[in-house]
Write a structure and sequence with these properties.
This protein is α/β, with parallel strands linked by helices and 374 residues long. It has twelve helices and 14 strands. 49% of the residues are buried.
């Protein structure tokens, strides 16, 4: 079981974390301190060696936390950005209303530039901004209070949404079987529970027993560092494998289900997720293993007909060249480092959402579920 000796939280905060995450983990991120408070988040670049809480008091610190992967996962990025809007506009809440709204728009554009692929970032910015636009002719201070309340609502809804994703998908987990996952789509990628891992947590709580294989997920090892960390903390049997071992593992008959998260899903179901997901989906199809995506409705981007329009973030070459302090690529040799790839909907067995399961995946079924559910 994971040890939490380095956690910088008060005993009161820790008890809240355990109750809310229901995983024995600290809150991935939370607002603390009321109107003059700050965003507190687990610095995921330090896991699993150290568990430390980072306090962000400015929008620049939130931007850096998102860009630097201190907070990551599409839902968590959206929540962090909504609080970043509050921090970035707090200094103008005593100004004229129009000055405040101008600042809000500028801060929103700034935050959206941190990472382009995760649709939840822009979705959260737009949702909080609409509160200010709909407020009418009231003081900037009252509008700012509304922004903070909306950010709190997004955080609460994310936890509830992820819990319901788990409830919908738990039945798909094979009792006594093996489950493969890629990257980290757990409590560390959301406010609580996670998306893909929420399915596993719910199945575990229902008494199903299964073994999880976590791809290490090069180049930053989110599977090895984060997924294995939180599954082990929850008492779930987990084994880390090299990314290149996934297809061979499937061929050996040890995998009966693949479940992953998503950063953006186009109208037809094409799904952007951490680089390497596409390869896993191809291997799963070859071996006739069900491949599921778990994501909230906020991750769907119905403005994109298919995955060709999804922007793919390019990360620094150094992450491949010399991750974790050891140079492994000869000097002068270039590195290609896309953060995500797109899995075609034809390879996806179903998409698990808080509003139900979409299977088979089609444009019509996606539109009906997303729109009918509000």
């Amino acid at each position: 079981m994971a040890q939490w000796g380095m956690m910088n939280q008060s005993s009161e905060d820790a008890s809240v974390s355990r109750g809310r995450n229901a995983r024995g983990l600290p809150d991935t991120l939370k607002w603390a301190g009321g109107r003059d408070g700050c965003l507190r988040l687990v610095d995921q670049t330090l896991l699993p060696g150290r568990v430390e809480i980072r306090s962000c008091t400015t929008v620049e610190e939130v931007w850096e936390a998102i860009r630097g992967l201190r907070v990551r996962g599409a839902p968590a990025i959206g929540v962090a950005a909504s609080y970043g809007l509050c921090l970035g506009t707090r200094g103008t809440r005593h100004e004229a209303t129009e000055v405040f709204r101008q600042k809000l728009r500028a801060v929103g554009e700034y935050l959206c530039a941190a990472r382009p692929t995760a649709v939840n970032l822009g979705w959260a910015i737009a949702r909080v901004t609409r509160v200010a636009e709909a407020a009418g002719d009231i003081s900037a201070e009252r509008i700012w209070d509304g922004l903070l309340a909306e950010a709190d609502a997004i955080a609460r809804e994310d936890a509830d949404t992820c819990r319901r994703i788990g409830e919908v998908g738990a039945i798909l987990v094979p009792d006594g079987g093996g489950v493969l996952t890629h990257c980290n789509a757990g409590a560390l990628a959301t406010v609580a529970y996670g998306t893909a891992l929420s399915v596993l947590y719910a199945a575990h709580e229902q008494g199903r027993r299964f073994r999880v294989f976590a791809d290490e997920t090069r180049p930053l090892l989110q599977g090895a560092r984060l997924t294995a960390f939180e599954l082990d903390a929850a008492g779930i049997d987990v084994t880390v494998i090299c990314d290149s071992a996934a297809a061979s593992l499937m061929a050996s008959g040890q995998v009966q289900l693949v479940v992953v998260g998503a950063d953006r899903i186009a109208a037809n179901g094409d799904t952007a997720n951490k680089i390497g997901t596409y390869s896993v989906a191809v291997a799963a199809r070859q071996h006739e293993i069900p491949f599921y995506v778990a994501a909230p409705r906020s991750t769907f981007d119905l403005s994109l007909a298919d995955g060709t329009g999804i922007p793919i973030e390019q990360r620094p070459e150094e992450e491949v060249r010399g991750g974790f302090g050891l140079d492994v690529v000869p000097p002068g040799v270039r590195c290609y480092n896309p953060a995500f790839d797109v899995t075609p909907s034809a390879l996806i067995t179903g998409i698990i959402t808080e509003a139900g399961l979409i299977s088979p995946v089609s444009t019509e079924r996606i539109a009906r579920l997303v729109n009918d559910a509000g």
